[in-house]
Specification:
Elements (H helix, E strand, L loop, with lengths): L1 H41 L5 E2 L4 H27 L2 H10 L2 H4 L2 H9 L2 H4 L2 H22 L4 H11 L1 H9 E2 L4
Parallel strand pairs: 1-2
The structure holds heme C (HEC).
The site of heme C has 18 residues, from helix 2, helix 7, helix 9 and strand 2.
Length: about 170
């Protein structure tokens, strides 16, 4: 009887003897998991997805870089009081230029109107019309401060669209 109990205790201690090493493996795993899990929710992008083909995406992002370039030149023109520079830079990103036959043909070929949501196209048009307004104001020789006011207000359009939409790589 006693020897049976001793055997049982011996087996138990063997089992529990093994347990700590199992546990420490489990603890190691638990310790390495949280940073990995925690990094995931941070990268979730909840903006609406605009699904575009490679070519369509490239088209939109190229236009975006043109708008950033216009913005840089307009800001520089404002700082230097160079109305000609403001006019030319703004015209490049304006709505008028986007309506020329060449641009319309390019947009049609890429089926951009079908691909882009209506709200996206509307916000894009509003922003482009603001660039035309800036170009026209510069052409009329209006004050740098008035032009800057229109441009600063119009740039809310950039932000509004950027917080709403994303264009993932196809
Ligand atoms: C109608 C919507 C819309 C408007 C208006 C808009 N953008 Fe964008 N822009 C986007 C989206 C969508 C992306 C892709 C963002 C993403 O997927 O993270 C983008 C990307 C960009 C990029 C990155 C280009 C690249 O090569 O990756 C730049 C720069 C940019 N926009 C500048 C501007 C500027 C400057 C304005 C305003 C003068 C502007 N955008 C107005 C929707 C817009």
């Amino acid at each position: 009887m006693n020897s049976k109990i001793i055997t049982a205790v011996a087996i138990l201690s063997l089992v529990t003897g093994c347990a700590p090493s199992d546990k420490s493996t489990a603890t190691d795993t638990v310790l390495t998991l949280p940073p990995v899990a925690a990094s995931k929710p941070v990268s979730v992008d909840e903006r609406l997805v605009v699904n575009l083909t490679d070519l369509q995406r490239d088209h939109v992002l190229t236009q975006m870089r043109t708008m950033l370039d216009s913005t840089q030149q307009i800001v520089e023109g404002l700082a230097e009081g160079d109305l000609k520079q403001i006019e030319e830079a703004a015209y490049v990103s304006g709505f008028k230029l986007s309506q020329t036959p060449e641009h319309r043909a390019e947009m049609g070929g890429l089926q951009m109107n079908k691909a882009l949501p209506r709200e996206f196209r509307q916000m894009s048009k509003t922003t482009r019309m603001m660039f035309d307004e800036v170009a026209d104001m510069a052409a009329r020789g209006e004050s740098v401060q008035d032009i800057q006011r229109v441009f600063a207000d119009g740039m809310h359009g950039c932000n509004a669209c950027h917080v709403t939409f994303q264009i993932p790589t196809p």
